[in-house]
């Protein structure tokens, strides 16, 4: 049924809060009057907004261009207050499973955020003592990717050398062996 803008918002609020729950379908599109109407007389097109629960309840309203801003503010506030129960998007790529020392025979896992969030693949591989794999063709498609990975590999080798040198110097310092300067 076609309602005024304020009545539509009230009915939509009741539809969201109905005890039966379920899904509410919302559609919004530009309203055209037909082929015989001339478009030169109109400064803008009204917008038709429909809401249904997929069963018996069907609501619609026609929002004129002059009322669209005030209606959108009220409509957005209504949607914001009634869509709080939506689940956040699960991002398994950002989570890591950790084994818990638990009770029983089965191992228990929990999901936690990564400690090294934002690290590049090369940095992660370097922390494990591995070098980034060089991929891409020497010529043609994939050439730039190969160039970038080669550069990252060389940088990783330099970092690895520095890390090993620092470890060696620390071990020598612990033992009391200091490098002799020339």
From TrEMBL:
Residues 116-150 are annotated as: Disordered. The lineage of its organism: Eukaryota, Fungi, Dikarya, Basidiomycota, Pucciniomycotina. This is Signal recognition particle subunit SRP14. One of its GO terms (biological process) is SRP-dependent cotranslational protein targeting to membrane. Residues 119-129 have a biased composition (Low complexity). Belongs to the SRP14 family. Keywords: Cytoplasm, Ribonucleoprotein, RNA-binding, Signal recognition particle. Its main location: cytoplasm. It is found in: Cytoplasm.
């Amino acid at each position: 049924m076609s309602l005024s803008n304020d009545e539509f918002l009230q009915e939509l609020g009741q539809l969201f809060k109905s005890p039966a729950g379920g899904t509410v379908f919302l559609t919004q599109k530009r309203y055209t009057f037909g082929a015989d109407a001339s478009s030169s007389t109109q400064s803008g097109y009204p917008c038709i907004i429909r809401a249904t629960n997929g069963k018996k309840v069907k609501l619609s309203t026609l929002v004129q261009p002059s009322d669209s801003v005030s209606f959108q503010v009220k409509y957005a506030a209504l949607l914001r207050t009634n869509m709080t129960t939506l689940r956040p998007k699960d991002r398994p790529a950002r989570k890591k499973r950790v084994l818990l020392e638990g009770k029983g025979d089965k191992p228990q896992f929990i999901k936690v955020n990564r400690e090294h969030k934002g690290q590049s693949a090369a940095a992660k591989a370097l922390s494990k003592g591995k070098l980034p794999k060089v991929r891409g063709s020497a010529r043609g498609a994939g050439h730039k990717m190969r160039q970038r990975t080669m550069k990252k590999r060389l940088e990783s080798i330099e970092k690895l050398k520095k890390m090993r040198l620092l470890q060696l110097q620390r071990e020598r310092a612990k033992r009391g062996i200091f490098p002799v300067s020339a």
